[in-house]
Amino acid sequence: MFRRDFIRQLALVSSAMAASPLLGQTASSSRVMLGIDVLEAEGFAKIKGLRAGLVTHPAGVNRRGEKTIDVLRRAPGVKLVKLFGPEHGIYGDAAADVPVQNSIDRRTGIPVFSLYGKTRKPTPDMLTGLDVMLVDLQDIGSRSYTYVSCMRNVLEACYDAGIKVMILDRPNPLGGLKVDGPGLDKKWMSYVGYFQVPYVHGLTIGELAMAATRTYGWLNLTDAGRKQGQLEVIRMAGWTRSMRWRDTGLNWVATSPMVRDIESAEGYPITGLGCQLGGFSHGMPGGYYPFRSISFSGKKAEEVRSVLAARRISGLGLNIQRLRDGTEGIYLAITDWDLLRPTEISFHMMQLACLWSTKGNPFLNATNSQQDLFNKHTGCEAFFNELQNKGKNTNVVSWINRWTLEAEKFREWSKQHWLYGA
Fold first, then answer.
1. Which end of the chain has fewer surrounding CB within 10 Å, N or C?
2. What's the number of domains the chain is made of?
C-alpha cells in the first residue's frame, strides 16, 4: 500500500511539473514513470547492498534522459560492478550483426561483457560475484528485434546460476493492444525469434519475461534453474496498454543505428519483413526515413504507389516522396492505428516482387541461407513455400486473414501475463 500511495503522489507532483511552462522546459513532461524511475522513487531499497550487474544500451535512460548506468552509480548503497551489452553494444555504435568485444567502460571504468560476441549468453565466469542482474533494454515490440532474445539468454543464465533477475520495465512503443502478423514455428526459433509469439506481440519486455518464466518450453533451463530462478519486474507507473510511445511524453532515444526515432520504430514491423528478400528496399539515400520509405529498383514511385494503393491496406497512407537529388520513394504514413495491421503490406510487397523481378521469382532463386533467414524472421516455411510455388499468384489475403485470427487468439492468451490495464 505504501509503495502504491508513494508512486501515486510522485506521479501527481510530476504532472504538476509538466504543466508548468517553466519546469516543462527542463524536465520530461511524461506522466509515465519507467522501471528505473520507480526503483529510484523507492530509494533503491530492493538492491541496496547487493552487487549488481546491468544489461543496458543507449536507450536505457530514465524519464529525464539520464543513463541508467549513472543513476545506479550515484545511488546510495548500490554496488554496480558489471555491465553487459546486447547487439550494437552499450553505446549503440556497433553495426547490426557485428560481434562486439568485451571491454572496460571508458566513462566509468566498470567491466563490460558483450552478449553479442563470442557468446550471447552470460557465462558462469561473467556472473561470478553478482547478487542481482538488472535489465534495462528498450524493445520495439517486434519479435525479430534481438533485445528480447538477449533478455531471454540472461534469464536462463541467471536462473541456472541462482542469481535474481530484475527487469526495469519500459513501454512497448507500439502499445499493449496491437498484436499482428505470423507466429513462430518452433523449428525456426533463433536469435531473431526466441519466443513463439506473433511478429507484433503487444507485450512489454517485463511482461514477455514473465510469460517466459510461466510457460513451459519458453526457457531452456536446468533442473536447478527451474527451482532456484527468481524474476521480479519493476513495473512502470502511469503507463497503460492503450498508450503508444507518442502518448507517453517520453523522448525517444535511438535503440539501434537504424531505429533512431519513433517513426522508424513504428516502421520496423511494417516494412522489415517485406524488404528482407525480393527486391524492395527501405529508407532513402542519406539515411532518410529508415523502415518508413520503400522503393523497388526499376519502378517509378507512382507505379509502386498505385499498385499498392489498389490493395486497400487499412490504416496506411502511401505518399510519394522526392529528395533534392531526384530520388523517389513511398513514405508509409499511419492514418489509422486502430485499423492498421502493421505487417500486412510486407506480404503484398513479397508478392509484387515475384511479379516485378527481372531475374525470375526471387524466392525460387533464393540460396539456402537466404531461405533460412527469411523463415527465421517470418516464422514459418509454409508461406515461403507458397511464394516459391505460386509466385505472383500467392493468395496473400488468405494468409493475412489466417494470421489475424491467430494473433487475436494469442492476445487473449497473453492477458494472463499482463501487468498493466488498458
1. N
2. 2
Same domain membership, residue 237 and residue 272? no
Structural domain including 52 reads 32-169+204-241
The SS3 of residue 95 is: coil
Q: Are 343 and 377 in contact (CB under 8 A)?
A: no
Residues paired with 189 in a beta bridge: none
- Provide the β-strand partners of residue 1: none
User: How confident is the model over 130-184, as pLDDT tens digits?
Assistant: 999 999 999 999 999 999 999 999 999 999 999 999 999 999 999 999 999 999 9
Which of helix, strand or coil describes residue 57? coil
Please report the beta strands in 323-368, taking only residues with DSSP state E, as ranges in sequence order: 328-334
b/e sequence 333-357, b meaning 16+ C-beta within 10 Å: ebeeeeebbbbbbbbbbbbbbbebb
Residues 267 and 395 placed together within one structural domain of the fold: yes
End-to-end C-alpha distance for the chain, whole angstroms? 22
Summarize the chain as % helix, strand, coil (round to 5): 35, 15, 50
pTM: 0.91
Q: Let me know if residue 214 belongs to a domain.
A: yes
